[in-house]
C-alpha cells in the first residue's frame, strides 16, 4: 500500500510541478487540428524505417558511428531538417543494429535480457535472508534500468556513460547479494 501512495504522489507532483515547456512537448505527439503530426515525431517513425533498410543492406553493420555517413544515402530531403544531411539514430537498438549489424542487435538484446533476468533472479534471494536494504537497492537499480531502456527507445543512449555504469553495477550488485546470502547462511550454520 505505501508504494501505491508514493505512485499517486509522484503523479500529483508531475501534474502540478511539470514545466510548461514539458506540456508543450507532450502535445506534439498528438495530431494538430488538420490531422498533421509534428515533424519531429513523424520523422522518428520514418527514421526507424530507414534504419531497418540500412540494416538489411548492411547485415554486418556499418561500423562504429557509421550511421551518420551511411544514412545520407537513404534519407529524403523531407525527412532531414539539417543542411549537413547527417543524422544519428533516434533509438538505441536501431543504432546498435545499424552499426553492429544483426550480430550487434542480437548481442544488444541478449545483454538487456541478461540484465532483466539478473535483477529478477535477485528477488529470489529474499527467501534466503537477503538484507532488506539490499532489496531496496535492487528495486532502485531495476527502476533505473527500466528508465534507461525506455529512454533508449526514443534516443540513442548506447554510448552513454550511464549505460556502462548501470550494467557494471548490476554485475557487482549480483555478486554482493549472493555473497551476503552465502555468508549469512554460513553464520547461521555455525550457530
Key attributes of the depicted protein:
191 residues; mainly alpha; 7 helices
Can you summarize this structure?
By secondary structure, the chain is an all-alpha fold. It has helices at 2-17, 20-27, 39-57, 67-71, 92-122, 132-151, 161-190.
Tell me about this structure.
It contains 7 helices and no strands. It is mainly alpha-helical and 191 residues long. Helix 3 packs across helix 5 (92-122), helix 5 (92-122) packs antiparallel against helix 6 (132-151) and helix 6 packs antiparallel against helix 7. The longest helix is centred in the middle third of the chain and has 31 residues, at 92-122. The mean pLDDT is 84.
Mean pLDDT: 84
What's the gyration radius in Å? 22 Å
Question: Care to count the β-strands?
Answer: 0
Largest sheet: none
- SSE sequence, one letter per element: HHHHHHH
- Helical element count? 7
Structural class, from secondary structure content? mainly alpha
Shape: flat
Q: Span between N and C termini?
A: 36 Å
Low-confidence stretches: none
Give the helix level as a range of percent: 55-70%
| Percentage beta strand | under 5%
Amino acid at each position: 500500500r505505501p508504494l501505491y501512495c508514493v505512485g499517486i504522489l509522484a503523479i500529483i507532483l508531475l501534474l502540478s510541478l511539470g514545466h510548461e515547456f514539458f506540456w508543450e512537448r507532450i502535445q506534439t505527439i498528438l495530431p494538430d487540428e488538420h490531422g498533421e503530426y509534428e515533424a519531429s515525431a513523424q520523422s522518428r517513425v520514418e527514421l526507424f524505417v530507414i534504419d531497418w533498410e540500412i540494416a538489411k543492406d548492411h547485415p554486418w553493420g556499418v561500423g562504429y558511428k557509421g550511421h551518420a555517413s551511411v544514412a545520407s544515402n537513404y534519407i529524403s530531403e523531407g525527412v532531414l531538417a539539417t543542411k549537413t544531411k547527417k543524422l544519428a539514430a533516434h533509438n538505441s537498438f536501431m543504432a546498435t543494429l545499424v552499426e553492429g549489424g544483426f550480430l550487434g542487435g542480437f548481442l544488444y538484446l541478449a545483454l538487456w535480457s541478461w540484465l532483466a533476468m539478473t535483477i529478477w533472479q535477485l528477488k529470489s534471494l529474499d527467501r534466503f535472508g537477503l538484507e532488506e536494504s539490499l532489496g531496496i537497492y535492487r528495486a532502485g537499480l531495476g527502476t533505473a534500468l527500466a528508465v534507461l531502456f525506455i529512454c533508449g527507445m526514443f534516443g540513442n543512449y548506447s554510448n552513454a556513460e550511464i549505460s556502462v555504469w548501470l550494467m557494471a553495477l548490476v554485475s557487482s550488485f549480483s555478486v554482493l547479494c549472493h555473497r551476503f546470502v552465502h555468508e549469512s547462511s554460513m553464520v547461521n550454520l555455525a550457530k
